[in-house]
Design a protein that fits this description.
Helix Hairpins, alpha+beta, 7 strands, Heat Shock Protein 90, 364 residues, seven-stranded mixed sheet
Length: 364
């Protein structure tokens, strides 16, 4: 990717610094001929031309110079336009594959070339920015995944090494450290499983079992699953006003349960103790809208567009303290997009956040 970025930078540098044009060549030829004519006239005036009918000679020379200029300019003009037409056909070849054949007017050919070069330059600038952004995200991802994998490995390694140099006869001591090592190994397994799941979503390997499902019933099932976690934080889960009723959508039930577990679980984990988590279900004109709202601390605007990236964390220390792999929202995004729908978030610092996604209406 670095080589491609360097190549694009070189091409852009070439187009931005290449200022030679056909007009400048034509002006140079015209100026050269005019200067030559003036010098010729001065040379004639420097001699005594009274014996040779000077005005007739001057007139003949001027006519000859004009004819010569027009002939040379026409030959050069035709030669250059032939070359430019070939260049134009090359740089517009891909466009013509998907568009009707254009009739090229030679008088406008320079304008076409200039327009295409400018469009090419702009496209390459956009591509360069995209590649640089992708390279930045790639480095961040590699750093994050390395850290996420190393942390449980080092923790488990530390507990095991402590046992090896300690007293293995103390069963209580052994069980305590083995339990902590097992917790970190389980966390490592979760990270690997989530990474594999994302890879399968991206490669299209996972299949979906679409059917008409009751979203209201799915939310109630997740509330029941989250009872213990919500009670621990004294968080009250429920439906928004007017939303505690059945509403149907066309989706994969198990995958949507996974989405709800991630979003409702995050609302409980990152919300305030003693807070609330409300779910809204709305039947729109062409889709079902699901909203999960908390009254937690909220998320700053600068973080919102990157929340669904793999391993992206707003507060890294706090996120690890409440568990999770840092891949939940990325999985949510892949599931919803695999349904052909949208997912997003809005938030106000100090007021709370609302994560939302859409689903297709049920099929008759």
């Amino acid at each position: 990717m670095n080589q491609k970025i360097e190549f694009l930078e070189l091409k852009l540098d070439f187009f931005q610094n290449k200022n030679i044009s056909i007009r400048s060549v034509s002006l140079w030829i015209t100026a050269s001929v005019l200067v030559f004519n003036i010098i010729s006239l001065l040379v004639y005036y420097s001699f005594d031309l009274s014996r040779f009918r000077q005005w007739q000679y001057i007139l003949i020379w001027i006519i000859f110079s004009i004819v010569l200029y027009l002939l040379v300019f026409n030959l050069i003009d035709r030669f250059l336009y032939r070359k430019i037409k070939v260049l134009y056909k090359i740089i517009t070849r891909d466009r013509k594959k998907n568009a009707a054949k254009q009739v090229i007017n030679s008088t406008d050919l320079i304008g076409y070339i200039q327009q295409d070069v400018e469009e090419f330059e702009n496209a390459q600038l956009v591509e360069l920015e995209r590649l640089q952004e992708s390279e930045k995200y790639r480095r961040e991802f590699l750093g994050n995944v390395s850290h996420e994998l190393k942390t449980p490995i080092f923790n488990a390694q530390g507990y095991i090494e402590t046992l090896l140099v300690g007293d293995l006869n103390d069963q209580q001591h052994v069980k305590k450290y083995l339990a902590k090592a097992a917790e970190n190994i389980d966390r490592l397994q979760l990270i690997v499983d989530d990474l594999l799941q994302i890879t399968k979503y991206e490669s299209g390997e996972l299949t979906f079992d679409f059917e008409n499902i009751d979203i209201h019933a799915c939310v109630k099932e997740v509330f029941h699953t989250m009872d213990l976690r919500a009670d621990t934080k004294q968080v009250r889960c429920g439906f928004k006003e007017g939303c505690d009723t059945a509403i149907f959508a066309y989706a994969d039930r198990n995958k949507i349960i996974d989405v709800l577990i991630n979003l409702i679980g995050n609302a409980i984990n990152y919300g305030n103790s003693g807070g609330i988590v409300n779910v809204g279900l709305y039947k729109m004109e062409d889709h079902v809208l699901v909203e999960i709202t908390d009254n937690g601390p909220g998320i700053e605007e600068q973080h919102l567009r990157r929340l669904f990236e793999r391993f992206y964390r707003v507060d890294k220390h706090r996120n690890r303290s409440v568990g999770g792999t840092g891949l939940g929202l990325s999985i949510v995004k892949h599931i919803i997009e695999a349904h052909g729908q949208r997912v997003g978030v809005r938030s106000s610092v100090g007021k709370g956040s609302t994560f939302w996604f859409t689903l297709a209406l049920k099929k008759d």
